[in-house]
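ENTRY TYPE: paired fold submission
RECORD: A
CONTENT: sequence, then structure tokens
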Amino acid sequence: MQMGGAATRQLLDKAYFLDLLGDSHSGLGRHDAAITAYRQAAEGFREQEAQCSYALCLFKIADSYLLLRQPHNAVRYLEQCLPLLHDLGLTRHEALARKHLASCQIVPVQSH
């Protein structure tokens, strides 16, 4: 449910702030803190139907998990953001997300 006017703007401002906070944490190598901020931002963007910002936050969460060498956690976010990136025409990010997703596909090692 969307609210009008100032309330909507305030919620979007908070989401944008959290997105920037995530960027700052990521730039400092604090990827766990970045993920927390990006998740909160993504929720705000989703609630306000800001699809582009929502898709990019999902991508940033996945990227942060990859930087933490946790591809198993990145997969879910990559799978969520790919159709959104495609629908929005964000071809560069879509190509990066596909590349990241392909790198996450781990073939189990079989023991003999």
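RECORD: B
CONTENT: sequence, then structure tokens
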Amino acid sequence: MRLVFATAELSPVATVGGLAAASAGLVSELRRQGVDVDVVMPDYGGIALADPVSFDLDVPSWAGPASVTVGDHPVCGRLHLVDVPGMARPHPYLQPSGEGWPDNDARFFAFARAVAAFVERVRPDVVHLNDWHTGAALAALTDGPPSVLSIHNLAYQGHASVGWLDVLGPRAQHYEWWGGTNSLSGAIALADAVVAVSPNYVHEILTPAGGFGLHDALTQRGAALRGILNGIDTEVWDPAADPHLASPFDLDRIDARRANRSALLDRLEFPDDVVPLAAVVTRLTPQKGIDLLEPLIPVLDELPVRLALLGSGDADLAGRLHVAASNHSASFAFIEGYDETLSHLMFAGSDLFVMPSRFEPCGLTQMQAMRYGSIPVVTAVGGLVDTVPDVDAHPRSGRGIVARRAESVDLLAALFRASRRLGDRRRRATIQRRGMAVDWSWKQPAREYLGLYRELVAHG
């Protein structure tokens, strides 16, 4: 089977959020399972490929000139890099000020049109699109192959002015949205199958609260909408062979995990004692709910729990977290930015891993945490519900602590429950082992996607 897989991000070539890791993990596993995958992504500049070959794509004047460079990447394998006007930028979406590039609509609509031209040229068995950046490709594909659209985050939809409806393609009328153009809404209407990145996220996006205005459009797709839970790269996230750790470990050597806790506490300048250590590795955005943890910092000593947070994003929130770390240095540490080694050590050395998300289509870090023996404390949203059964609600299968709502008071109650569970060493070890024993890899998700592709081809 030949698949064209179009995405705006692919780790480690271009990484902004979970889309990059999900794209890379799924593509890699699909190739292992025998699928011939043509990865098509924007050429943001500075991406070195071995044995590159370039050719032009036939696109309308508004989207061109457009070309593709094909070659081998040392990590990602064969890539197709699409160059369209204005695409090469130091950040895929954002200016140095943190605001979006003012021509993001033109850049990604041109990219999507180039994806359509590439599909028309190679005639794959299936085309798999991801999020709004690629969604407008279906406007131009009147006689294309079966199509799959994966929704990684419904909050980002590709809103643009109504004038784009005049140029996107013969099926552009499906992209009209309240007097404007919406790349994601059109793709939802036209794709043969729409996949949300966790089963619970499917239920959420069909509601007014979680649908971001598209719940009716999604409801109309009926059985064409389904959920497939993401996986993680279990080669990168492997505690038994992780070069970033002070001491590798696995289920048979779980006691070796203690050395990582000691190393992490030393790095954070916390005492190496029995007080539970909770970690957070995240982007500082409203979605991630880090502001909900802020009111809890002054009462961490009372739980007792220490908290370490590694992240970057909203400058105002980062400033407040620095102040909190200065005022409560005995129980809270904040490291702004991203440190690869420290992030891995935080998974391997923390007792708890906290995700206070307001919404979370799938989530990856809770799976990484469980693979490394850190017990997750999460909110009851999206893929967190699918991956973290609550230990009190599910005594025989629970893998973490679930806060009922994304509210500070509920998170405080969840942290209090978690600190109590850690006091029972046997129960704690059981919960840790459950999380570590799960196969969090992309094997099963890739099988489900492959089954979907075959189903579409058979009925196409």
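NOTES ON RECORD B: The longest strand covers residues 50-57. The mean pLDDT is 97.
STATUS: closed
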